[in-house]
From TrEMBL:
<dbReference type="GO" id="GO:0008270">
    <property type="term" value="F:zinc ion binding"/>
</dbReference>
<dbReference type="GO" id="GO:0044205">
    <property type="term" value="P:'de novo' UMP biosynthetic process"/>
</dbReference>
<feature type="binding site">
    <location>
        <begin position="61"/>
        <end position="63"/>
    </location>
    <ligand>
        <name>substrate</name>
    </ligand>
</feature>
<keyword id="KW-0479">Metal-binding</keyword>
<dbReference type="GO" id="GO:0006145">
    <property type="term" value="P:purine nucleobase catabolic process"/>
</dbReference>
<feature type="binding site">
    <location>
        <position position="151"/>
    </location>
    <ligand>
        <name>Zn(2+) 1</name>
    </ligand>
</feature>
<feature type="binding site">
    <location>
        <position position="61"/>
    </location>
    <ligand>
        <name>Zn(2+) 1</name>
    </ligand>
</feature>
<dbReference type="InterPro" id="IPR002195">
    <property type="entry name" value="Dihydroorotase_CS"/>
</dbReference>
<keyword id="KW-0378">Hydrolase</keyword>
<dbReference type="InterPro" id="IPR024403">
    <property type="entry name" value="DHOase_cat"/>
</dbReference>
<feature type="binding site">
    <location>
        <position position="93"/>
    </location>
    <ligand>
        <name>substrate</name>
    </ligand>
</feature>
<dbReference type="Pfam" id="PF12890">
    <property type="entry name" value="DHOase"/>
</dbReference>
<feature type="binding site">
    <location>
        <begin position="322"/>
        <end position="323"/>
    </location>
    <ligand>
        <name>substrate</name>
    </ligand>
</feature>
<dbReference type="InterPro" id="IPR032466">
    <property type="entry name" value="Metal_Hydrolase"/>
</dbReference>
<dbReference type="InterPro" id="IPR004722">
    <property type="entry name" value="DHOase"/>
</dbReference>
<dbReference type="GO" id="GO:0004151">
    <property type="term" value="F:dihydroorotase activity"/>
</dbReference>
<comment type="similarity">
    <text>Belongs to the metallo-dependent hydrolases superfamily. DHOase family. Class I DHOase subfamily.</text>
</comment>
Amino acid sequence: MRYLIRGGRVLCPDGSLEELDLRIDGDRIVEMGAHLPLTDSQVIDARDRIVLPGLVDPHVHLREPGQTAKETIETGTKAAAAGGFAHVCCMPNTSPVIDTKEIVEAIIEKADSYGYAKVHPIAAITHGLRGETLTDFAALIAAGAVGFTDDGKGVQRADVMRQALLCAKELAVPIVVHAEDETLSRDGHLHDGEVAKELSIKGIPSEAEAVMIARDIVLSEATGGAVHFCHVSPKSAVRVIRDAIRAGIPVTAEVTPHHLLLTQEEALRVGAWGKVNPPLRAATDRAACVEGLIDGTLSMIATDHAPHTAEEKARPIEASPFGFVGLEISFPLMYTAFVHSGIMALGKLVDSMARIPAERFKLHAGILNVGGYADLTLIDPHAFRRVDPETFYSKGRATPFAGRELTGWPTLTIHRGKIVFTRAAKEESIR
Ligand SMILES: NC(=O)N[C@@H](CC(=O)O)C(=O)O
Ligand SMILES: [Zn+2]
Ligand SMILES: [Zn+2]
């Protein structure tokens, strides 16, 4: 199949927007230029659209194998396509845990058979996420794993983390850190602040996250093993990561749209739909995350898409699991808050949502160029729509952003030369 994507403003690798046509042949971009001839290609009208590289999300939970009432590889990758993502890294806290090469291979194969988006498993650091013995990193990488994490839990033992970093250095992959010291976080449900106090709910202090980040920076420096910090949320953590990067220690970090845009007060408004780990914190923490995004300390945006069933997220806060969905609204959330508002250049946002995560996990993705894979996303920078969880492809419905008016919605997603998502024209602007 040949497509001619015509008349759009294309985000070029140097960050500029240029009115260019793109030709796709098979799974590749074969031509980019002004006013390309039709030559037996099917036209995709991209006037009034911005053309971006397919986005890359370094942190999603697809829940397969084992938790298919929450999500499946099929529904999760459909949600990715609807959010403009061509690549997602999936987390290993499934059941069974992604700790064998057979499970890694099965996930990749299944995702490829659907073809909505590429899935790159991040395998477990330790068997069963028990925090004790390392998995077979080399075998898991050979099967397609792009990093290692015990996400959902922090690796409590420093000796185990040091060993993991030594192996990671040897194999040139990052250790992806969910930072949570359980001696400080245990039994907590919300940020340890005013709202938790008001609701008489046990809190999770910022230090539970920051002390483990500080520990792993020290271990990264000592071993030379690379660390990627997940979903950074407290001010203290942003500061120590910034210092570590300045000191040349091989660390990177991601931040979520929810930690950039929301605070602990959400619990009063949306209850368990705003319960997430790490928790939505204080206004000073949120401001520090924004500062970290702007200055490049937090160089990647991750959704931490964490679907649960409607029943689970309808429970009272203390009985509900941590996490909510994000894939289908992450780009419009970020675009509206940071680009439409004039705070950040589009090129920088897309770097943080495509090029930089692709580089970190060595994915062939994240920029538009001739000869590269035809993974791309058309964005409507004009229309405003409200977030309506009922329209999600994900099985998850919970999000504290329900009802928000956003712009910058993906209207068409192409993955490996195939159209994998189009937004229905009837979903027109509300403004
Ligand atoms: N973020 C969450 O609140 N939940 C995640 C686990 C995690 O990312 O730590 C989940 O798997 O549900
Ligand atoms: Zn986590
Ligand atoms: Zn996660």
